[in-house]
Amino acid sequence: MSKMEALKLSLIIISLLLTSLRSIASSPDNHRYNVGDHVPLFVNKVGPLNNPSETYQYYELPFCGPDPVVQKKESLGEVLSGDRLTSALYKLNFRENKVAETLCHKKLEGDDVAKFRDAVINDFYFQMYYDDLPFWGFVGKIEEDSWTLEKKSLKYFLFKHVQFDVLYNGNQIIEVHAIGDPNQVVDITEDVGVDVQFTYSVVWNTTSAAFDTRMDRYSRASSLPIHLKIHWFSFINSVITIMLLIGLLTLLFMRRLRNDLRTRFSTGDEEDDKEVGWKYIHGDVFRYPRNKSLFCAVMGVGTQLLTLVCSLFVLVCLGILYPYNRGTLCTALVILYSLTSGVAGYTTASFHCQFAETGWERSVLLAGIMYAGPLFVIGSILNVVAVSYGATVALPFGTIMVIILLYAFLTIPLLVLGGVIGYLFRSEFQSPCATKRYPREIPPLPWYRDTPCQMFLGGFLPFSAIVLELQHLYASLWGYRILTLPSILFIMFIILILITAILSVGLTYIQLSVEDHQWWWRSVFCGGSTAIFMFAYCIYFYTRSSMSGLLQFSFVFGYNACMCYAFFLMLGTVGFRSSLMFVRYIYRAVKSE
Questions:
Q1: CA nearest 65: which of 106, 36, 7, 99?
Q2: How many of the other CB atoms lie within 10 Å of CB of 301?
Q3: PANTHER family attached here (predicted)?
Q4: Any alpha helices (H) in 514-549, and if so which ranges?
Q5: Residue numbers in the chain where pLDDT is lower than 50
Q6: What are 13-36's pLDDT values in tens digits?
Q7: Could you tell me the pTM of the whole model?
């Protein structure tokens, strides 16, 4: 081989290596591109601005589309979120400007014009993804043609030109916008066929914004804007509330409880026996509640959901789960619910076996359907409504089968396994006082000491501490605001648990002081009653919003009912566990004296 041939071969090898390194350094996976590189763009869905759940596939409207239309392979979470990413004719290569590029020529028939006009009337938007960045634009606009005192005439126009404004920093894309040109429109007021030439332009500009902060702007995108100051106000309000409650209970312990603990169960004097209050029912306070299997199932599912929520926050803190990744939240919820079912089985069986060694299987069965059953029923109804609308939130048959198989072959086996472990490692119920054979009659109580009044008090105070953060959460769920401050949400969740525990202890003490020993179920109801206020606030939120239609109404109240039911089970479990610790403490302290 001559020196010239060797040199040519070396140059070829070097060029191949450089090409290889270039392809490795720039790709959609690491979001780094070179000039002229293809950047993936997908169209997703369309829908009315005021109804976030009412979305349809992008090509339900007669836009220009490729032939054939290729749908992107989606994860379980993306399908559950209603995302349907498909290919598009738009070509937005990295840092390549385009002016009035023709997308397609299309003949719109009368039916096509009517579809576009209905979309403009309902303020339809479209959503696309460019380099995993979501962006939105409107289909058309409405203008007043002429009007008199008797009648106002409106004209409807379709945008036929879209301008894409893209910001980049170095070799990374930072921001993208899509703007319909109001000067290039087609009149679609009448059902008359029309020839349309759809065009688009691409404008690239530099920015100093860092790639790591490119998602920050989405935190400001909401139909119901909420500022960060409100978060801190909510946090300070909650801290003040919990400090006041701690001070109240401290005063209660210092004055009332300490005096009670100095008094013995009985001095032999009938007068003294009438004055001991909660001590007088020591033989009934640890009596097992009615509907024992149901009670154990509530404890099991409540503990499971608490574990699930805490696991979600851990994933967020570790950076594994973040709000910008499509469908990750839904995927995490489904997987974590299946994995934590073992917690429900173990807690249910172990708690049941403290009362009786037999019948724990029934409690575990109830735990398996206590939350999944209502969720399946509500989800099925919502899916029927979504199918009737042809919306993207309707689950395909394949996705439904995946969820059923996941529940059958992962959730149920883990639930049973947890139940078996709970049975094998069972222990007796630790009761400081012996339970009498026959229950003592509860004296008549005034109306304000009944369960509904205590539930109102036990639910209203925690709700008042979290109401501002709840507003932000609902704006994220049923608006277009992306929740970017999960740390504050986690702090509020911890405060909610602490307030619920403190109030449950106080209300249980008040109940025992009037010789009412049926505190087991009441502590669950008082702890979980915050969920009732949360659902009531959902009704208020819906009436104050611009949402309308059967589909949006069904999804808002259906999914909020599931969420509030989960909070009822979680907070009810917290209320009972904290009350049980308190009751054991005071009766153990009296017994030691």
A1: 106
A2: 29
A3: TRANSMEMBRANE 9 SUPERFAMILY MEMBER 5 (PTHR10766:SF119), TRANSMEMBRANE 9 SUPERFAMILY PROTEIN (PTHR10766)
A4: 520-528, 530-544
A5: 7, 9-26, 221-226, 265-275
A6: 434 333 433 333 445 667 889 999
A7: 0.86
